[in-house]
Amino acid sequence: MVFNRSILDNGIRVLTEMLPQVRSVTLGFWVGVGSRDEAEELSGASHFLEHMLFKGTEKYSARQISETFDSLGGELNAFSAKEYTCFYARLLDEHVPIGVEILSDMLQNTLFRGNDISSEREVVLEEINLYEDTPDDRIHDLFASELWSNHPLGKAVLGHMDTVSNFTREEVVNFFKQHYVSNNIVVAAAGHIDHNELVSLINKYFVLNGKIAFTRKLFVPEVESHIAVYNKNTEQAHICYGTQGLYAKHEDRFALAILDNILGGGMSSRLFQEIREKKGLVYSIYSYSSLYSETGLFSIYAGTRPSKTEQVVRLIQEEIAKLVEDGVMLEELDRSKNHLKGELVLSLESTSHRMSRLGKFELCEGEFLSLDELVERIDKVTLDDVKRIIRNIFDPNKMVLTVIGPFKTKDLSHLLER
């Protein structure tokens, strides 16, 4: 990955990756604020701001913002997460100046009109309602909240009905002013883009002076094994079973990626083959890992008929026990390495993915690795590395089981008995 990086006088960091073979650019404005940075009474504020910044400025109304990008054949969108918020545009290279102008205006001059706050509040509440009715999505947030019940990373990105319903304009504006400061912003772009030209555009349109950004308190949470059951009359039980993982800069993160792939990363994975293909007990089963500033999580998801819940959990536990006892085979290691390298190369054909890599590296990881360096790190992982991660991750004293389904806690509490 060949990239350029500049820090502007006002503190904004600008990163670009030039891809001369394309005619498009994906442009992202990243803000280092997410759900983990919210006070309890402001749960969901980062996500709410993501919505509000599309509601218009003195120069561009909400409709004008939408119509401008539609007329350019471009895309404008945003997303929120636990540690960052991103506003991004994908457009032709010749339209980068207008994209920078509008995104800069949105991040500096949103009006926060009372009627806009009221109307968008209703939109977000409907989004929360939809989420509450989608248990295969909700289970992951519930798992994180159980794993990190006393840590900011356990907070839900969307917030809650009661907190979103009670945001005041003053609270929203103050949260915005506290976090949307120039030295808490990263501009990342990938595609047919000249770095110096982008720096000039940012200097022209983003005029906020640098301020001292808020300090995020980092600490590793304590995790204890337990089970949490969320009673809901669903046709399918939704299961997350997992534990604490690794932080974003951990040297073993590549070994963890390989373990994740072997255990539940695809159709050839152990979980898929054993529980779906052989037993036919699930439609969907997979594992995943999320890495954050000071910690992470590793989880396995499965959806099954309520009557099969215990059997599925026991089978997952058996597969983990096999890993702990025997490790992985050389054939699995090699196959997983090739799978990860193939995914990596294919993903880099997307300017959006390349832009996201730049933004996340700068905000969360602090280590820029080229494609060759990433491949080298993957290739260096040994069987012993994977075995060490297996034994570190799957501590029986830190395994957490979260289930949504027609159960009470006492119905499933025995599943974590050792």
Biggest sheet: strands side by side, in what order? 1-2-6-3-5-4
CATH H-level superfamily title of the largest domain: Metalloenzyme, LuxS/M16 peptidase-like
The number of helical elements comes to 16
Largest sheet: 6 strands, mixed
Could you characterize the architecture of this molecule?
This protein has 418 residues and is an alpha+beta fold. The chain has 2 domains: 4-205, Cytochrome Bc1 Complex, Chain A, domain 1 (2-Layer Sandwich); 226-416, Cytochrome Bc1 Complex, Chain A, domain 1 (2-Layer Sandwich). Helix content is 45%, strand content 18%. It contains 16 helices and 11 strands. It has helices at 45-52, 62-71, 96-109, 114-132, 135-147, 161-166, 169-179, 195-205, 253-264, 270-278, 309-326, 330-347, 351-365, 371-380, 383-393, 409-412; strands at 4-7, 13-18, 24-31, 75-80, 85-92, 185-191, 226-231, 237-244, 285-291, 296-304, 400-405. The strands form 2 sheets. A 6-stranded mixed sheet has the order 1-2-6-3-5-4, sandwiched between helices. A hairpin with a 5-residue loop joins strand 1 and strand 2. Helix 3 (96-109) packs parallel to helix 8 and helix 10 runs antiparallel to helix 11. The radius of gyration is 23 Å and the shape is globular.
